[in-house]
From TrEMBL:
GO terms for biological process: methylation. Gene3D superfamilies: Ribonuclease E inhibitor RraA/RraA-like (3.50.30.40). Coiled coil: none annotated. It holds the Pfam family RraA-like. This is Dimethylmenaquinone methyltransferase. The keyword Translocase does not apply. Residues 1-19 form the signal peptide. InterPro entries: RraA/RraA-like, RraA/RraA-like_sf. It comes from the Bacteria. Its cofactor is Mg(2+). Mg(2+) binds at D177.
């Protein structure tokens, strides 16, 4: 009986200690993303390949949204952003951070724990996520929409972010020194507003924990697709299938538009479930499609057609 009590107390102590950490442990992240079976980063986040991230840049938000809705993920899109470079597209592996309104006693606990985790306690804790960014990461922060006295970065931190990630940020909150951020070549950001104030009434509370961005739920290791039409957060284990499915839909659209211009079919025939005649025409059209212009490899396309019911 004593052994059972001791084991229970040890387990309780373990989870209590875990809950006090600022950053999620690799074990916790692996639990959150247990459906991912591929390579992982040192912190436990899924490492979706760079090649797949590049292909994702060509996917439309609507196509990604539709795929996720069909899989039961109904709360993964957020819009109404201000964007540093609105004509650019950004994809990457998500590193999450949560901020809350400043509360001095809680801030002291966070700073003390940050010290135990070997984090820099001399500067502001808003530098902590930046220090652990890896190439291909996107820094995603829940700043609860605050702008005044809640600006999460200016040009100094923006340069540090880009130096580590070669990517950008998505902030449900504010930024400062937009002029300086515009000068960082390759850097981009989605944010709620800008203000000259610096961060003084807001504090970091967690890194790589689940967060809320607007009407979305975001997990560390998600993959984000961000463009002028919004941001969509994709579970890592669905990215591969989402990309090829969306690429296939784009080919269907291209075929349909071409046949409508040629007046071979009526709009009603293309805009509904296709007949066997149209399906056969599409498959023949695909066979003649130049390999070097396909969004996927010919083998990937052939494999997809074997299981695709359209």
């Amino acid at each position: 009986m004593k052994k059972i009590i001791l084991a229970t107390l040890s387990l309780f102590t373990f989870y209590t200690i875990q809950a006090q950490e600022v950053a999620a442990t690799p074990e916790y992240i692996k639990m959150l993303t247990s459906k991912w079976t591929g390579e992982r980063l040192d912190d436990g986040r899924p490492k979706v390949s760079d090649a797949l991230l590049q292909r994702l840049k060509k996917i439309r938000i609507e196509e990604a949204w539709g795929y996720l809705r069909n899989k039961g993920f109904n709360n993964q899109h957020e819009g109404n952003w201000q964007i540093i470079h609105p004509n650019d597209v950004m994809t990457g592996r998500v590193l999450t951070t949560q901020y809350m309104p400043l509360r001095p006693d809680y801030q002291q606990v966070i700073k003390k724990q940050g010290g135990l985790e070997k984090r820099d306690t001399i500067g502001g804790s808003n530098s902590w996520p930046i220090e652990i960014l890896k190439p291909g990461d996107v820094y995603v922060a829940d700043g609860y929409g605050r702008i005044v006295d809640g600006t999460l970065i200016g040009s100094n931190l923006g340069n540090a972010i880009y130096a580590n990630s070669k990517n950008g940020v998505i902030f449900d909150g504010g930024i400062r020194d937009l002029g300086g951020l515009l000068d960082i070549e390759g850097f981009n950001g989605w944010y709620r507003g800008e203000d000259p104030s610096y961060l003084q009434q807001e504090m970091l509370t967690s890194i790589n924990m689940p967060i809320r961005i607007g009407r979305t739920t975001v997990l560390p290791g998600d993959v984000v697709l961000a463009n002028r039409h919004g941001t969509i957060f994709i579970p890592a284990h669905l990215v591969d299938e989402l990309v090829i499915s969306s690429e296939f839909v784009a080919l269907q659209d291209e075929f349909g538009f071409q046949r409508l211009r040629e007046k071979k079919y009526l709009a009603g025939q293309i805009d509904t479930r296709w007949t066997n005649e149209i399906k056969d025409d599409f498959k023949d059209w695909l066979q003649k499609y130049p390999d070097n212009k396909l969004p996927m490899t010919r083998q990937e396309l052939n494999d997809y057609l074997k299981v695709k019911d359209f």
